[in-house]
Structure formats: structure tokens, C-alpha cells
Amino acid sequence: MRNAFSLTTALLILASVVQAQGPVDLDTVRAGRFDAGKMWTFEYAPSEYFTETYGFDANDAWFERARLSAVRVPGCSASFVSPDGLLATNHHCIRGRLASISREGETLLDDGFVAASIEDERRIPGYFVDQLIAAEDVSAEVFAALDDATTDEERTAARRAVIASIQAQARERHADSGGDSLHVQVVGLYDGGRYSLYVFRRFTDVRMVVAAELQLGFFGGDNDNFTYPRYALDFAFLRVYQDGQPYQTDHHFTWSQDGVEENDVVFVIGNPGRTNRLNTMAQLDLQREMTLVNSHAWYSSRLNAIWDFYAEDPATGEALDLRNWAFGLSNTLKATTGRLEALDNPLILAKRADAEASLRDSIAAREDLSERYGEVMDRIATIQEQKATLAVPHAAFEIGRASCRERV
Description:
single chain; alpha+beta; 3 domains; 16 helices
């Protein structure tokens, strides 16, 4: 979700700049090369583009350092920032874990936490850190297993079998990779257009080092992290342990003495969410008119209910950890609001429509692609119409759109 919202934000900024220059003839709008953003996975990263555009050698060693220094934590990203297993992450990523390490009489969510020494660092129950040690395109293996399947049921069974085989082989190849265990995934990208194998070294002894107090964690008047610019101390430090000792790593980011200056190249490396960059215009229309407006209404009602309950009974609210629930809902609501604003922007939609038209033309120009994919977008559009038809008896469209208008 974060990445989808970042893409939406970028498009809204672009639209605002263009519209500020005067009226735009939407019939002349054309899609740009990076309208869908600049986000790549490690196995598909454009190293030559990085080198040519930004003037540094984006070689295998650079990618390895970046990949092994950045890690995945539950629901978020983090980075090694010392050779002794120290991790930097966001306060909102560990906010819900503070209650699990609090001792009697402590209110760490409000007061924050600082370990004065290694001995004072507190282990977080049920927490883990995943370090990506291998990323591999396994599309050819998956597609080969599907070639002989003739029905959806056969394809599903074949896909599951080949993925299980790929994962088993990966576990065997990386059995001596260290960590407490291995976590192996095969992920379908581009709606199944590609398949990637990800092998993670998992650490399960993770301890809290520093967490800012709540008021500093979202200082600036807004409860969630989808607000820019932000002046909050939205940070926390953790430490990874192995065999009871701080984990020793050769791969970590170092601290800058000078900070970031204008025209410096900045890469954001982490565990991504879905971008939905391949949605068709028909899918976007359904989101704008029904799906997102109803989600917006649902998140708004739940968020209001939580805060009303908390105001009536703060003690029970604390026991149920309602504030963290509310912060998470606020985060999602803000992202949903941004997506709706983008889908109501004619310039953004014109760019997406041009990109889709170009794709249709490219498919139609090749007989092999036209025969296989020529009707796909029309079939997707028909499915969206069927979804909308099913929603009408439940008045989903009217309720969601009315609630969204009231909110805006």
C-alpha cells in the first residue's frame, strides 16, 4: 500500500504542476516513460540505466550490499546500520510491539524506551527479521510446468507442484546460509507474467534498543505516516542476535556526516507492497465508482467508532491496544483518499488511457500476441461490469460514494 500511495502522490504532483500552467487538451496527453514510477525488484533492476543516468557503477557488488543491508520485518522494512546487528526502522513499524515488552507500571508507547546497555535490550516476542540472500527469476520453470495443462484445475495443481519443488530445491541449496532458519517464497509478479524465487535468512531473536515516545513518533499533528513533509521522530532501533550474541554482519549502511544535498541520488530500498500498475481503465473505473469509495466509507466508520469508544473508556481502550489499531486504520484511510483523488484527476486518467491504447496497438500488431491476448482487456472489462451489477442490489455504490463526498 505504501508504494501504491507514493505513486499516487507523484502523479498528483505532476498533474498539479501541469494544470498550474494552464488548461490541457486531454486528447493530446501522452503517457510518459516513468508515469508508473521507478520501482524495481532486485532481479529486474536496470543496472545499466542506473549507471548511465546517475553516474555511478551499479555493479553486482553494489546490488549485493544494498540487498543484504536492507531487511524485512513484520509489515515493514529496516536496515542494518552497524556491524553489530543494529537495525534502523520506523517508530510506526514497532509501535504495536511496545506493549509486549512493557513491564508492570510501564507505558512505553507514551514514554518511549531506551536501552542504556546491551543487557537492557529487550527481546520482542514473536518478532523476526528476514534478510534477502537470493532472488532468482524462475518463470521458465513455472511456465514449462503449465504447458501441458488444459484446464484451470490442472494449471492450479501444476503451479502448486512446481512451486513446491522450486522451494524444496532452494532450501537444499541454501541450507548452510546461517540465520535461525530459511524462509523461501515464490511470488507471482505482473499478475503471473513472471515468477520470482526469494530466499530469506530469518532471525528470530530481535531486541528493542530505542523507541521514541508516541508524541514524537508522529509529531506534527497527524497520526499516520502518509503525511509530507513530516517533522516527526518516526524512528526506532532494534538489534539482531544470533546464538545469544549481537549478529555480526559485513553488510550494513553507514552514517553520513554531511546528509543529503540537492541533486544527490537517493534510493529507497525495502520490502514493497503491491503497486497495481497493470490495472486496466475498466478496473480503475470500478475502483473509483465503487470499490475504493466503499473502502473509504468502511475505514472512516471503523476509525470513528474506535476513537469514540476510546474517548468513553480509555482504560479498556489501552487494554485492547485501540490506539495502535486506530493509527493503522488512519494510515490505510489516508492512502485510500489519495488513490481516490488520483482517480478523479482527468490528466492522470488520460495518461493511463494512452498507455493502455498503446499496449492494445502493440498486441494487435503481432498475430501471435493478438491471438493469445487480443481479447484479454475486453474480458477484464466484462468482469468489472458483472461486479458492478452484483453490487447494485446491495446499494454499495450509492452508500460508498455518498459517504466519500461527505468526507471530502
